[in-house]
């Protein structure tokens, strides 16, 4: 099966050695080389190979509209590499689970020189004598589409939970409303507040300092760090309730973190984590005891 809208005289472009080499370098660079070296060369390599592969791919899809493909690619790339795309990136990162980023560097626009090369290559009547072309062409096309969607994700500092923090992950449900649950906590003199920010100590690993502005651009400088660092990662999350101190059958739990979600007929409570200074090792028996206690609390 051929990719939709492909002209039989043009789809062979996806098997051209220059297209395959550029596609290979693009994926290798975005998946590996950027993390290993992260310098000006790896940045430019993605731009040059990416533009060449992207333009040639869409010329193969729309062979009668080569100049429209070339013009659209040039405009989109110029917009992406300029501050004009910053509002879009900010909006995307606020609502989408997978963040995107890019570096504003006008030298990247030199990659537009790949467009005439793609144009010239698209004019060649390439007819490789390869078996199973009907299999390889759609396969290469799908890999190319993946390379367009794939982006080097922003680097995040590795963080870890403190030794005394228990990841509880307890799920409970009740017929009470969220307001009734909070009223019950208040009646038991259990203080709580709503928050949306958590702090986690930085763990071992490789760390990079973002040095440029605006925040949607990424330029990283490698720095050293150790596990005993005073650095913390600040994470903005969905709003949650935090109970600073809670007495559970004589054991003090600190910073009990939970979320309450109102369903159609039931209210769901998710107790994510808490801290304890107890010398007793946390095990399955304690977990069952805690879950039984919280279930009764929220009934």
Structure description:
- By secondary structure, the chain is of the alpha+beta class.
- It has two domains: 11-149, no CATH class; 165-298, no CATH class.
- The chain has eight helices and seven strands; from the N terminus they run H-H-H-H-H-H-E-H-E-E-E-E-E-E-H.
- It has helices at 17-36, 40-61, 66-80, 86-95, 114-122, 133-149, 178-187, 284-298, and strands at residues 165-174, 193-201, 207-210, 220-223, 232-248, 251-262, 267-276.
- The model is unreliable at 1-8 (pLDDT under 50).
Offer a quick outline of the entry.
The protein is built from eight helices and seven strands, in the order H-H-H-H-H-H-E-H-E-E-E-E-E-E-H. The protein is α+β, with helices and mostly antiparallel strands. The protein folds into two domains: 139 residues, no CATH class; 134 residues, no CATH class.
| Total number of strands | 7
- Could you tell me the radius of gyration in angstroms? 27 Å
| N-to-C SSE string, H for helix and E for strand | HHHHHHEHEEEEEEH
Tell me the helix content.
25-40%
Give the helix tally. 8
Strand content: 15-25%
Largest sheet, if any? 5 strands, antiparallel
- Which class do the helix and strand fractions yield? alpha+beta
The side-by-side strand order for the widest beta sheet comes to 1-7-6-5-2
| Low-confidence runs | 1-8
Please tell me the overall pLDDT.
Answer: 79
Shape: elongated
Tell me the distance between the termini: 58 Å
Domain module tally: 2
Keyphrases for this structure?
299 residues, 2 domains, 5-stranded antiparallel sheet
